[in-house]
Amino acid sequence: MVTYYIQKHLLQANVRVTIKNLKGKPEYLLVGRWGVRGDSLSIYDLEGRALASVKPKNFAFRSQFELFENHQKVGEMGRVFPIPKDIYFIKGVKWLVLGDSLAASYHVYQLAKKVMTVTTIGNVYKIEIEEEEKVPLCLCLAAVLDYWSNSHGLRRNWLERKNYAPNLTYIVLKESLKDGRS
Questions:
Q1: SS (HEC) of 105-149
Q2: What is the CATH number of the domain that holds 137?
Q3: pLDDT, tens digit (0-9, with 9 covering 90-100), for 135-156
Q4: What total number of domains does the chain contain?
């Protein structure tokens, strides 16, 4: 299992985010933006290979996103039930996301097996991913969840967003629990 700590709303900001381990060594680069049809968010390795990306399919009332891994479409994400709790299903990879956008807390399952957990600690997301090879796709999914969590301003306190300061840090930390090394 690997754990990442990422500042809230940074995953959906229009900035380049370097994903680093606890020792400060870069591991991934998150590049992209939301807002216009054709925009996407991509995860790259340090050699410049695109590992995973997410693209909005539409921005209608029921927005949907397409997930790609190694330039191959692996899934399509849409909301099943947004009220009072959030339920999303990702066709293709057959992942079920259960969560609460107000608390920014999510659990991702494939059948009965846990894939990822996203919890909020203050102004930071704690993202726990069970299998390291799923990290790029899971980080793309976390970006979509962050986008949906932030896009419901009517349900959120506007002061929470006012406290967001993207210029403070772009450091994303990783903690590896596999063998004690980072």
A1: EEEEEECCEEEEEEEEECCEEEEEECCHHHHHHHHHHHHHHHHHH
A2: 2.40.160.200
A3: 999 999 988 888 777 665 434 4
A4: 1
Q: Which residues contact 106 (CB under 8 A, 6 or more apart)?
A: 86, 97, 98, 99, 100, 116, 117, 118, 145
Give this prediction's pTM.
0.79
Q: How far is CA 8 from the centre of its chain?
A: 10
In a domain? residue 62: yes
Nearest to 28 by CA among 44, 42, 15: 44
* Residue 181 domain-assigned (yes or no): no
DSSP the chain: -EEEEEETTSTTSSS-EEEE-TTS-EEEEEEE--SSTT--EEEE-TTS-EEEEEEEEE-STT-EEEEEETTEEEEEEEEEE-SSSEEEEEETTTEEEEEETTTTEEEEEETTEEEEEEEEETTEEEEEESSGGGHHHHHHHHHHHHHHHHT-TTTS-HHHHHT--TTS--EEEEEE-SSS--
